[in-house]
Amino acid sequence: MKKSQLISTLTYTAIASAQLSFAETTITIGTVNNGDMIRMQGLSAEFENRHPDIKLEWVVLEENVLRQKLTNDIATKGGQFDVMTIGMYEAPMWGKKGWLNELSDLPEAYDLIDIFPAIRDGLSNDGKLYGLPFYGESSVTYYRTDQFDQAGLEMPEQPTWTQVKEFAMKLHNPEKEQYGICLRGKAGWGENMALITTMSNAFGARWFNPEWKPEFDGGAWRETLSFYVDLLGKYGPPGASGNGFNENLALFNTGKCAMWVDASVAGSFVTDPTQSKVHENVGFALAPMEVTSNGAGWLWTWALAIPSSSDAVSAARTFVTWATSKEYVALVASTSGIKNVPPGTRASTYDEKYLTEAPFAEITLQAMGNADPINSTKNPKPYVGVQFVGIPEFQAIGTQVGKLFSGALAGTSNVDNALKAAQEYTSRQMNRAGYF
Question: What's the CA angle centered on 67, arms 62 and 72, to 5 degrees?
């Protein structure tokens, strides 16, 4: 073979080998079908352009389905996912079990200290970080300022649930498809039970007493569930038992809800003129209290974690670091506007420009600052968590109780039967787990 031919062959082989090395590592990302995550997927081409050796595959699912799939995969070490979207409930427990890779020695430019301490702590166990937060949230009250003005009503900085019900009654106009209030009714420990648990906190209830005995047979829980079923049954939209975050967001944005109590992360969507028909008439208040403000608003973060079963840890780490970085925040600001950057995670996000342009920024900070996972009930409790109970058994218990309470809302059961069944089921599960 001539020298020129040999050089040509070697050059071709080198180029071909280099091309094969690009897209050599594929990472599968399991995430929830919320607007911010869908935006992340849309912007991921920027990441792939900068990292041609990493290919991204997306599995985007409804919240309940995602949680089930991720839990099954990580518990069985299935290895289906390289990046998992989880939160403050899963990260500490799964990290403790050795199911997640610790996220230490992050690049200096990542600026981990910039992440709010409550968010960092919520994703850690024994000082070890197991998830990088994509966005953080509490819960707030959204309301239609135009409807309140027309009715001569004034929303307090933090209403009581009793006041919310009075407002809903006055603003409910189903003939025009305008409903007094929209709330989560879809069953799930992170769907209807997130809302109902914060409501129960406000009414003075708790999941367990200090001896880990469930308290669904108590007066505070009966008052909570009776109030919830009556409020949403009388002044909510039809089919409320099937509505979760995304369904209620769509209802609010199309002008069908006078009020909506839900995640603060929705602030950018309800004020976005490309998504919301009512964007000019949205007000913000703290989530309602009642006999106490303890635990009235939840605390949560959707975070990106890397399971120990992943065979692409290095590539996954590169992606989760990018997607939760200041660089990504700047990318969203430049492509979608500063109002749409992921909220609730970085102190640097809340500069003067953001606070000026994002009308929901102040209430988000206030609500997140008020949320205390340790002291989230009127009376002492043995668990950590505002809208969830930080024990492994809670996922199954919360899911079943959510189904029972959704049934009471739908009318397939009633409040007394739902509470009785919740008490019996929870007691049985806790007894089997050895809590008492």
Answer: 130
Residue 24: its pLDDT value, please?
82
Taking only the tens place, the pLDDT of each residue in 36-57 is 999 999 999 999 999 999 999 9
Q: What is the CA radius of gyration of the chain?
A: 23
- Contact present, 94 and 86 (Cβ < 8 Å): yes
The structural domains of the chain, ordered by start, are 23-137+300-357 (3.40.190.10), 139-298+373-432 (3.40.190.10)
Angle of helix 415-432 relative to helix 394-410, nearest 10 degrees, comes to 170
Do residues 349 and 343 lie in contact, with contact meaning Cβ atoms separated by under 8 Å? yes
Task: For the chain, give the longest Cα–Cα distance.
Answer: 92
pTM of the model: 0.92
| Axis crossing angle, helix 394-410 with helix 192-202, rounded to the nearest 10 | 90
- Neighbouring CB atoms inside 10 A of 369's CB total 13
Q: Taking Cα atoms as reference points, which of 285, 42, 28, 238 lies closest to residue 143? A: 285
Closest C-alpha to 106, from 413, 410, 392, 318: 318
| Alpha carbons 55 and 153: distance in angstroms, whole number | 53
Cα–Cα distance for residue pair 55/319, rounded to 1 Å: 10
Secondary structure of 290-334 in HEC code, one letter for each residue: CCCCCCCCCCEEEEEECECCCCCHHHHHHHHHHHCCHHHHHHHHH
241: Cβ contacts below 8 Å, ≥ 6 apart: 185, 186, 187, 406, 407, 409, 410
DSSP for residue 89: T
The share of the chain scoring above pLDDT 90, in percent, equals 94
Catalogue the long-range contacts made by 23-26 (C-beta closer than 8 Å, 24 or more residues apart): 23/52, 23/53, 23/54, 23/55, 24/53, 25/53, 25/54, 25/55, 25/312, 25/314, 25/315, 26/54, 26/55, 26/56, 26/57, 26/312
Q: What are phi and psi of 33, to 5 degrees?
A: -85, 45
Distance CA 331, CA 346 (A): 15
Contact 141, 287 (CB under 8 A): yes
DSSP-derived letter for residue 377 is S
Q: At what angle do helices 313-323 and 326-336 cross, to 10 degrees?
A: 50
